[in-house]
């Protein structure tokens, strides 16, 4: 596949913005329908996996869940967890199979609708028009760093998780990681295993078992139908789209993460970050609650599996009840970074999307796209690769194929109706 294909037309039936696994999957099914299209990728295929992850990064879901369209994981370790370079190789191999009509190194700067109803796509390589536009850029555009971070003294290094690579990158001294989602706890462990003294501001993220009753938990959840749970059936409804994922890790063959155990090993835990005033770091008094809430979700997953085993009369080993191995004596609300010798802060509190370049009324008041199974309320505009696009599996290697196939089918049907008109 060429690094960059030159454009030979100005109008396409469909333009796909983003050449990651989601955009490539859409292209795969558009080709099956014979729909002329182009994929614009501002960087290079596999860029975010290659450049926006830390050195020891690996998947938190096992390799058997890597099921891009007609391209399942074919290695010899289905229960393992791909390392960063292996993920890049998997995505690049899929791209080679798809052989998409892609233009790499082309950024999309504006999407708007002309008076004739056609969608206009303005790129760094010229302007194009399309009947349909699929946005496959993901929602990780702008790293979140709170405004009060600006008051941190200059002698304390701070960076976002997207820029973290390894412990040696940070100056000598202790490190505060802010955020206990998947990235936060994995970076905390990365630093802890390297012998660094680590502090962790614990948020409201839930946690999950890794192995339970003789089997990997995601296998149980797959059998229970959790990955097929649709957003309309979720108790929280659309609010589930903004909930943090359960934390666990695939590192070293995979294991669960119990922050209480890390506290016993010397990691200092605090509640949610609240403010910074000079070298004074302030936290909400919610450490105990956040640990308890994460454990409550952890236990509820175990209970769901227990009920499934009982209902299906499955012979599975019994495990002892969960118990807390550590409890904070109090919820600390402030520390002095200089006194604690904290010389760096790593922000791991997520990202927010940036869709300001899409000049169409497809977003809510917070700038998040509104859609039903990826179909927006704007005629001809679609989204893919986002959490809970349709199911809990959406946005993952496991669920992208179904989402892409569905959208390509919708586009094919609408083009057919247009041709008949």
From TrEMBL:
Keywords: Oxidoreductase. The keyword Nucleus does not apply. The keyword Transmembrane does not apply. One of its GO terms (molecular function) is flavin adenine dinucleotide binding. Pfam families: Pyr_redox_3. It comes from the Bacteria. This is FAD-dependent oxidoreductase. It comes from Methylomonas koyamae.
């Amino acid at each position: 596949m060429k690094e960059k294909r030159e454009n030979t037309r100005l109008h396409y039936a469909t333009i796909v913005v983003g050449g990651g696994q989601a955009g490539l999957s859409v292209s795969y099914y558009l080709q099956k329908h014979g729909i002329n299209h182009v994929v614009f990728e501002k960087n290079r295929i596999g860029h975010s996996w290659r450049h926006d992850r830390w050195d020891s990064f690996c998947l938190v879901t096992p390799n058997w869940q890597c099921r891009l369209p007609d391209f399942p994981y074919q290695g010899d370790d289905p229960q393992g967890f791909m390392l960063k370079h292996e993920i890049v190789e998997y995505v690049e191999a899929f791209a080679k199979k798809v052989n998409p009509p892609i233009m790499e190194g082309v950024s999309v700067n504006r999407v708007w609708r002309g008076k004739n109803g056609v969608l206009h796509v303005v790129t760094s390589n010229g302007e194009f028009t399309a009947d349909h536009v699929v946005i496959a850029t993901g929602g990780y555009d702008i790293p979140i760093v709170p405004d009060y971070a600006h008051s941190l003294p200059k002698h304390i290094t701070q960076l976002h998780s997207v820029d973290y690579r390894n412990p040696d990158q940070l100056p000598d001294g202790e490190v505060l990681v802010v955020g206990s989602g998947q990235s936060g706890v994995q970076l905390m462990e990365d630093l802890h295993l390297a012998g660094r003294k680590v502090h962790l501001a614990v948020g409201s993220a839930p946690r999950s078992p890794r192995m339970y009753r003789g089997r990997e938990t995601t296998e149980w959840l797959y059998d229970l139908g959790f990955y097929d749970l649709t957003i309309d059936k979720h108790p929280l409804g659309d609010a589930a789209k903004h909930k943090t994922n359960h934390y666990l890790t695939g590192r070293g063959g995979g294991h669960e993460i119990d922050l209480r155990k890390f506290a016993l090993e010397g990691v200092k835990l605090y509640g949610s970050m609240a403010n910074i005033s000079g070298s004074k770091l302030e936290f909400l008094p919610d450490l105990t609650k956040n640990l308890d809430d994460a454990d409550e979700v952890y236990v509820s997953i175990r209970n769901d599996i227990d009920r499934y085993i009982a209902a299906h009369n499955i012979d599975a080993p019994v495990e002892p009840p969960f118990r807390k191995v550590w409890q904070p004596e109090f919820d600390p609300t402030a520390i002095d970074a200089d006194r604690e010798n904290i010389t760096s802060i790593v922000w791991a509190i997520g990202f927010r999307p940036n869709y300001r370049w899409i000049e169409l009324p497809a977003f809510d008041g917070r700038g998040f796209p509104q859609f039903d199974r990826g179909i927006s309320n704007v005629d001809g505009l679609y989204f893919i690769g986002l959490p809970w696009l349709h199911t809990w599996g959406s946005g993952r290697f496991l669920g992208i194929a179904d989402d892409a196939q569905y959208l390509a089918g919708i586009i094919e049907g609408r083009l057919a109706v247009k041709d008949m008109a």
